[in-house]
Specification:
With about 240 residues, this protein is of the alpha/beta class. The chain contains seven helices and ten strands.
Length: about 240
Protein backbone atom coordinates (compact mmCIF):
# COMPACT_ATOMS: atom_id res chain seq x y z
CA UNK A 1 0.00 0.00 0.00
CA UNK A 2 1.28 3.42 -0.96
CA UNK A 3 1.60 5.99 1.81
CA UNK A 4 1.44 9.77 1.65
CA UNK A 5 -1.36 12.28 1.07
CA UNK A 6 -4.64 10.51 0.31
CA UNK A 7 -5.79 10.64 -3.30
CA UNK A 8 -9.33 10.78 -1.93
CA UNK A 9 -10.44 12.18 1.45
CA UNK A 10 -14.00 12.34 2.79
CA UNK A 11 -14.97 14.00 6.04
CA UNK A 12 -18.47 13.97 7.53
CA UNK A 13 -20.22 13.02 4.27
CA UNK A 14 -24.02 12.91 4.49
CA UNK A 15 -26.52 12.16 1.73
CA UNK A 16 -30.32 12.01 2.05
CA UNK A 17 -32.90 11.19 -0.60
CA UNK A 18 -36.59 12.06 -0.53
CA UNK A 19 -38.73 9.15 -1.72
CA UNK A 20 -42.39 10.12 -1.74
CA UNK A 21 -43.07 11.32 1.78
CA UNK A 22 -40.09 9.48 3.24
CA UNK A 23 -36.49 10.61 3.78
CA UNK A 24 -33.81 7.98 3.19
CA UNK A 25 -30.50 8.66 4.92
CA UNK A 26 -28.12 6.94 2.49
CA UNK A 27 -24.89 8.18 4.11
CA UNK A 28 -24.49 9.30 7.71
CA UNK A 29 -21.18 11.07 8.34
CA UNK A 30 -18.68 9.05 6.31
CA UNK A 31 -14.97 9.64 7.04
CA UNK A 32 -12.66 7.90 4.59
CA UNK A 33 -9.12 8.20 3.25
CA UNK A 34 -7.99 6.31 0.13
CA UNK A 35 -4.26 6.34 -0.47
CA UNK A 36 -2.68 6.47 -3.91
CA UNK A 37 -2.21 2.99 -5.37
CA UNK A 38 -4.62 1.22 -3.00
CA UNK A 39 -6.90 -1.57 -4.21
CA UNK A 40 -9.83 -1.15 -1.81
CA UNK A 41 -13.06 -3.11 -1.43
CA UNK A 42 -16.27 -1.48 -0.20
CA UNK A 43 -18.61 -4.11 1.25
CA UNK A 44 -22.09 -4.11 2.73
CA UNK A 45 -25.65 -5.35 2.13
CA UNK A 46 -27.92 -3.94 -0.55
CA UNK A 47 -29.19 -0.52 0.43
CA UNK A 48 -26.27 0.25 2.76
CA UNK A 49 -25.08 3.23 0.70
CA UNK A 50 -22.29 1.71 -1.41
CA UNK A 51 -23.51 3.02 -4.75
CA UNK A 52 -24.25 6.45 -3.27
CA UNK A 53 -20.74 6.62 -1.86
CA UNK A 54 -19.21 5.54 -5.17
CA UNK A 55 -21.20 8.20 -7.03
CA UNK A 56 -19.94 10.89 -4.67
CA UNK A 57 -16.33 9.67 -4.88
CA UNK A 58 -16.63 9.54 -8.69
CA UNK A 59 -18.08 13.09 -8.83
CA UNK A 60 -21.33 11.80 -10.31
CA UNK A 61 -23.33 13.09 -7.33
CA UNK A 62 -22.84 15.60 -4.54
CA UNK A 63 -23.04 15.19 -0.79
CA UNK A 64 -25.56 17.19 1.20
CA UNK A 65 -22.99 17.85 3.90
CA UNK A 66 -19.29 17.24 4.52
CA UNK A 67 -15.97 17.73 2.76
CA UNK A 68 -14.64 15.94 -0.33
CA UNK A 69 -11.00 16.24 -1.38
CA UNK A 70 -9.65 14.71 -4.61
CA UNK A 71 -5.93 14.86 -5.42
CA UNK A 72 -5.51 17.28 -2.53
CA UNK A 73 -8.15 19.70 -3.84
CA UNK A 74 -11.20 20.55 -1.73
CA UNK A 75 -14.20 20.32 -4.05
CA UNK A 76 -16.95 21.78 -1.89
CA UNK A 77 -18.61 24.45 -4.00
CA UNK A 78 -16.86 23.43 -7.24
CA UNK A 79 -19.02 23.88 -10.33
CA UNK A 80 -20.26 21.16 -12.67
CA UNK A 81 -17.69 22.13 -15.30
CA UNK A 82 -14.90 21.45 -12.80
CA UNK A 83 -16.46 18.10 -11.85
CA UNK A 84 -16.74 17.12 -15.51
CA UNK A 85 -13.11 18.00 -16.19
CA UNK A 86 -11.87 16.06 -13.16
CA UNK A 87 -13.93 13.00 -14.13
CA UNK A 88 -12.63 13.12 -17.69
CA UNK A 89 -8.97 13.60 -16.76
CA UNK A 90 -8.55 11.66 -13.52
CA UNK A 91 -11.37 9.12 -12.95
CA UNK A 92 -12.29 5.90 -14.75
CA UNK A 93 -15.43 3.82 -14.23
CA UNK A 94 -16.15 0.08 -14.45
CA UNK A 95 -19.82 -0.88 -14.21
CA UNK A 96 -21.54 -4.17 -13.40
CA UNK A 97 -23.44 -4.10 -16.71
CA UNK A 98 -20.42 -2.89 -18.72
CA UNK A 99 -22.19 0.22 -20.19
CA UNK A 100 -20.58 -0.28 -23.59
CA UNK A 101 -21.90 1.55 -26.65
CA UNK A 102 -23.57 -1.17 -28.76
CA UNK A 103 -22.90 0.47 -32.14
CA UNK A 104 -19.14 0.70 -31.53
CA UNK A 105 -16.54 -2.05 -31.77
CA UNK A 106 -14.46 -3.09 -28.77
CA UNK A 107 -11.59 -0.88 -29.96
CA UNK A 108 -13.92 2.07 -30.56
CA UNK A 109 -15.46 1.72 -27.09
CA UNK A 110 -11.99 1.77 -25.57
CA UNK A 111 -11.01 4.75 -27.70
CA UNK A 112 -14.07 6.82 -26.79
CA UNK A 113 -12.59 8.60 -23.71
CA UNK A 114 -9.61 9.63 -25.83
CA UNK A 115 -11.97 11.22 -28.34
CA UNK A 116 -13.62 13.18 -25.53
CA UNK A 117 -10.22 14.40 -24.35
CA UNK A 118 -9.28 15.35 -27.96
CA UNK A 119 -6.23 13.11 -28.06
CA UNK A 120 -4.65 13.19 -31.56
CA UNK A 121 -5.56 10.28 -33.82
CA UNK A 122 -2.14 8.62 -34.01
CA UNK A 123 -1.71 8.80 -30.24
CA UNK A 124 -5.19 7.31 -29.79
CA UNK A 125 -4.33 4.41 -32.05
CA UNK A 126 -1.07 3.69 -30.21
CA UNK A 127 -2.75 3.78 -26.79
CA UNK A 128 -5.70 1.64 -27.86
CA UNK A 129 -3.49 -0.96 -29.56
CA UNK A 130 -1.28 -1.17 -26.45
CA UNK A 131 -4.08 -1.68 -23.95
CA UNK A 132 -5.97 -4.11 -26.20
CA UNK A 133 -2.84 -6.27 -26.14
CA UNK A 134 -2.59 -5.91 -22.35
CA UNK A 135 -6.17 -7.13 -21.84
CA UNK A 136 -5.84 -9.91 -24.42
CA UNK A 137 -8.45 -8.74 -26.92
CA UNK A 138 -6.35 -8.51 -30.09
CA UNK A 139 -8.58 -11.01 -31.91
CA UNK A 140 -11.78 -9.23 -30.86
CA UNK A 141 -10.90 -5.56 -31.36
CA UNK A 142 -13.33 -5.20 -34.28
CA UNK A 143 -16.23 -7.03 -32.59
CA UNK A 144 -19.25 -5.19 -31.26
CA UNK A 145 -20.39 -5.88 -27.67
CA UNK A 146 -23.22 -8.23 -28.66
CA UNK A 147 -20.63 -10.54 -30.25
CA UNK A 148 -18.48 -10.69 -27.11
CA UNK A 149 -18.76 -12.88 -24.02
CA UNK A 150 -19.37 -11.36 -20.58
CA UNK A 151 -15.71 -11.64 -19.69
CA UNK A 152 -14.65 -10.03 -22.96
CA UNK A 153 -17.09 -7.18 -22.44
CA UNK A 154 -15.68 -6.58 -18.97
CA UNK A 155 -12.15 -6.56 -20.40
CA UNK A 156 -13.29 -3.85 -22.80
CA UNK A 157 -14.85 -1.93 -19.91
CA UNK A 158 -11.66 -2.18 -17.84
CA UNK A 159 -9.52 -1.09 -20.79
CA UNK A 160 -11.85 1.86 -21.42
CA UNK A 161 -11.66 2.88 -17.76
CA UNK A 162 -7.86 2.85 -17.84
CA UNK A 163 -7.16 4.24 -21.32
CA UNK A 164 -6.69 7.82 -20.07
CA UNK A 165 -4.40 6.66 -17.25
CA UNK A 166 -6.76 7.92 -14.52
CA UNK A 167 -5.54 8.38 -10.98
CA UNK A 168 -8.70 6.74 -9.60
CA UNK A 169 -10.97 3.97 -10.89
CA UNK A 170 -14.46 3.53 -9.42
CA UNK A 171 -15.80 -0.01 -9.96
CA UNK A 172 -19.35 -1.07 -9.07
CA UNK A 173 -19.75 -4.86 -8.74
CA UNK A 174 -17.33 -5.58 -11.61
CA UNK A 175 -17.43 -9.38 -11.16
CA UNK A 176 -21.13 -9.83 -10.29
CA UNK A 177 -22.14 -11.24 -13.69
CA UNK A 178 -19.07 -13.42 -14.23
CA UNK A 179 -18.38 -17.08 -13.52
CA UNK A 180 -15.66 -17.99 -11.02
CA UNK A 181 -12.84 -18.48 -13.53
CA UNK A 182 -13.65 -15.32 -15.48
CA UNK A 183 -14.07 -13.30 -12.27
CA UNK A 184 -10.63 -14.43 -11.08
CA UNK A 185 -9.13 -13.38 -14.40
CA UNK A 186 -10.77 -9.94 -14.18
CA UNK A 187 -9.51 -9.41 -10.62
CA UNK A 188 -5.96 -10.27 -11.62
CA UNK A 189 -6.25 -8.08 -14.71
CA UNK A 190 -7.38 -5.06 -12.67
CA UNK A 191 -4.70 -5.58 -10.03
CA UNK A 192 -1.98 -6.00 -12.64
CA UNK A 193 -3.00 -2.98 -14.69
CA UNK A 194 -3.47 -0.93 -11.54
CA UNK A 195 0.03 -1.72 -10.35
CA UNK A 196 1.66 -1.08 -13.73
CA UNK A 197 -0.13 2.25 -14.12
CA UNK A 198 -0.15 3.41 -10.50
CA UNK A 199 -3.94 3.53 -10.45
CA UNK A 200 -6.06 3.57 -7.29
CA UNK A 201 -9.18 1.35 -7.24
CA UNK A 202 -12.29 1.74 -5.08
CA UNK A 203 -14.53 -1.28 -5.69
CA UNK A 204 -18.04 -1.91 -4.37
CA UNK A 205 -18.59 -5.65 -4.19
CA UNK A 206 -20.59 -8.49 -2.69
CA UNK A 207 -18.04 -10.92 -4.12
CA UNK A 208 -15.70 -12.52 -1.57
CA UNK A 209 -13.38 -13.49 -4.44
CA UNK A 210 -12.87 -9.81 -5.14
CA UNK A 211 -12.67 -8.67 -1.51
CA UNK A 212 -9.99 -11.26 -0.66
CA UNK A 213 -7.74 -9.81 -3.37
CA UNK A 214 -8.04 -6.22 -2.15
CA UNK A 215 -5.56 -4.42 0.10
CA UNK A 216 -8.29 -3.14 2.43
CA UNK A 217 -11.92 -3.96 3.14
CA UNK A 218 -14.21 -1.14 4.24
CA UNK A 219 -17.68 -2.08 5.44
CA UNK A 220 -20.85 0.01 5.21
CA UNK A 221 -24.03 -0.59 7.17
CA UNK A 222 -27.03 1.74 7.13
CA UNK A 223 -24.92 4.52 5.65
CA UNK A 224 -22.21 4.32 8.31
CA UNK A 225 -18.62 3.19 7.69
CA UNK A 226 -17.87 0.26 9.94
CA UNK A 227 -14.75 -1.82 10.49
CA UNK A 228 -11.80 -1.03 8.29
CA UNK A 229 -9.25 -3.79 8.14
CA UNK A 230 -6.05 -4.45 6.30
CA UNK A 231 -6.30 -7.38 3.93
CA UNK A 232 -3.54 -9.53 2.46
CA UNK A 233 -4.33 -8.64 -1.09
CA UNK A 234 -1.73 -11.03 -2.47
CA UNK A 235 -3.00 -14.38 -1.23
CA UNK A 236 -3.80 -17.04 -3.76
CA UNK A 237 -7.38 -17.34 -4.88
CA UNK A 238 -9.31 -20.07 -3.06
Amino acid sequence: MTTGSPILRLRGIHKTYVVGESRVHALRGIDLDIEAGEFTALEGPSGCGKSTLLNICGLLDRADQGELHLLGEKLNGAGERRFTRLRREHIGFVFQNYNLLPVLSAAENIEYPLLLSRTPRQARRRQVDAIIEQVGLEAFAGHRPDHLSGGQRQRVAIARALINRPRLVIADEPTANLDTETASQMIELMRGLGRSRGTTFLIATHDDRMARRCDRIITLLDGVAGEKRENGGDHEMA
